[in-house]
From TrEMBL:
Species per Swiss-Prot/TrEMBL record: Dactylosporangium salmoneum
Pfam families recorded: DUF2000
Protein name, entry field: DUF2000 domain-containing protein
InterPro entries in the record: DUF2000, Pep_tRNA_hydro_II_dom_sf
Gene3D superfamilies per the UniProt record, alphabetical: Bit1
Length: 136
């Protein structure tokens, strides 16, 4: 199926596996939480057990160095793209209020980005992610 938009996650390539998974879950929740129209229908198994809906289109996961992440972040902000960020400081906090305070305490240019998620038209997301590679 061909989708007019793209959901992509960009992770810094020096993160531990558990950090990559944690960052991915958090930043994708930002896209899903603000764009309920991207969610599909509820799931159900053959026994009728209901499950929560998931995003109705693929999420592509990319990786790159800190400089690639910083450049992508800058392009996302410049283009006004829907973007969720996860900074290194969030690995040390334990709740949403502290997470927001940690991000708020650092100027945009000084954010130590561990990852981000972006959603928008395919060509715009491709341009934002220039220099990143598919996660291996």
């Amino acid at each position: 199926m061909n989708f007019p938009t793209k959901i992509a996650v960009l992770l810094r390539d020096d993160l531990a596996v558990w950090q990559r998974l944690n960052v991915t879950a958090f930043v994708v929740s930002g896209i899903a939480g603000t764009r309920p129209d991207l969610l599909g229908e509820d799931y159900a198994d053959a026994d009728g057990t209901r499950y929560l809906p998931m995003l109705g289109q693929p999420v592509l996961v990319f990786e790159g160095g800190a400089e690639v992440l910083a450049a992508a972040h800058g392009r996302a902000v410049q283009r006004g793209a829907a973007c969720a960020v996860f900074t290194d400081e969030l690995f040390k906090t334990g709740n949403d209020a502290d997470n927001r305070a940690a991000v708020r305490s650092v100027a945009r240019a000084d954010l130590s980005l561990a990852g981000l998620a972006v959603h928008g038209p395919k060509n715009a997301v491709d341009k934002i992610l220039k220099g990143a590679r598919l996660h291996g």
